[in-house]
Amino acid sequence: MLKYKTMQTILVTGSAGFIGWATCDLLLKKDFIVIGIDNINDYYDPKIKELRLNSLKKYENFIFYKGDIEDLDTLRKIFKSHKIEGIINLAARAGVRASVENPWGYLDTNVKGTINLLECVKDFNVKVFVLASTSSVYGDTDKIPFKVSDFTDKPLAPYPASKKSAELFCYSYHYLYGINTIIPRYFTVYGPFGRPDMSIFRFIKKIDSGEPITVYGDGRQKRDFTFIEDIAEATVSCLNLEGFKILNLGNDNPVELIYVINLIEKLLGKEAEIQWQPRHPADIFATWADITEAKQYIGWIPKVSIEEGISKTVQWYKEYRDLLKDIKI
Predict the structure, then answer these.
(1) Could you write out the DSSP letters of every residue in 2-54?
(2) Once rounded to an integer, what is the mean pLDDT over residues 13-25?
(3) What is the largest CA-CA distance in the chain?
């Protein structure tokens, strides 16, 4: 069992989001005081955000603010009201394809919001800042697995461009003010209470209801699917670190998309009707995390295989089917 430094109060932004919810839940179980902030936007159906949030509100050590990290005044009020010792910034505009349509929203949340938080770290003497980043910063490359040291200056869409920009601002604040800054780059996170705009949730729901699913490309593209419980454990462990560090957080075992679809079919006992579409130019063909730094710095190795993770996710979906039937995907 990993041990944590003597920190008590952690701010988690995007606390109603998928990774934010799982991270809050783990922190709360470890008896941290968690300050959550989320604007509950409608990028995807907010009903599932409310489901996640309701599960967190059962904890006495959870305090929630509905607000936006783009609003510096709101953030300053929160910091003045609580002695925040660590920040895990999981609030973000996500989605590669959506960022092509609306790049401005990604600039405001992912870049401006990060700068606002860094200003608060500087002004309120916060011990550590964890910034969630993405495997998308590596772009489309034949060099796999992706290493932290790899070139990341050719993002294929505004989403990874905004995350790379946020990483650079983090380094400058670390250099100028000595802020301990840890940047986990996530690789295709999935699991119970997952995002309904992402492939795993969409495939399960549509295959279960007999609706056709859309697959871009030939289905042979590979993703390093990483289970949410593994990701939450690694994210919380980042609070232990000092200096400036970047970690890849992936399962270290990429699988073809069609293999995942086949797993879902078997678990549901239903065959998918697939509508094939051309590969989107902003999509990376393959992702694969070299997790050397995660092993070295936080002793993290993912535990959940894709087979076990998909099984747990499908089981969750079956249990919550009635609550999820009206979720828009």
Answers:
(1) ----S--EEEEETTTSHHHHHHHHHHHHTT-EEEEEE---SSS-HHHHHHHHH
(2) 98
(3) 57
Q: Where are the alpha helices (DSSP H) in the chain?
A: 18-29, 46-56, 72-81, 96-101, 103-106, 113-124, 158-177, 199-209, 228-237, 257-268, 292-298, 306-319, 321-324
pLDDT one-digit tens code per residue, 300-322: 999 999 999 999 999 999 999 99
pLDDT confidence of residue 97: 86
DSSP character for 307? Answer: H
Please state the pTM of the whole predicted model: 0.95
Reported as type and span, the H/E element at residue 249 is strand 244-249
Q: What is the pLDDT at residue 224?
A: 97
Query: Are 182 and 131 a contacting pair, CB within 8 Å?
Result: yes
DSSP assignment string, 51-65: HHHHHHTT-TTEEEE
What burial letters (b/e) apply to 304-326, b meaning 16+ CB within 10 Å?
bebeebbbbbbebbeeeeeebee
Q: How many CB atoms lie within 10 A of CB 212?
A: 11
Q: Measuring CA to CA, which residue among 100, 222, 80, 237 is closest to residue 155? A: 100
Rounded Cα–Cα distance for residues 153 and 69 (Å): 26
* Residue 182: partners with Cβ closer than 8 Å, 6 or more residues away: 128, 129, 130, 131, 238, 239, 241, 244, 245, 246, 247
The model's pLDDT over 145-180, given as tens digits with 9 standing for 90+, comes to 999 999 999 999 999 999 999 999 999 999 999 999
Q: Which fold has domain 9-324?
A: Rossmann fold (3.40.50)
H/E element, 286: none
Query: pLDDT-based confidence at 2, cuts 50/70/90?
Result: very low
Q: 153: burial class by Cβ within 10 Å (0-12, 13-18, 19+)?
A: exposed
pLDDT value, residue 5:
56
Name the residues annotated as catalytic: 159
Asked, as a colleague might, if the bond just before 145 is cis with ω within 30 of 0, I would say yes
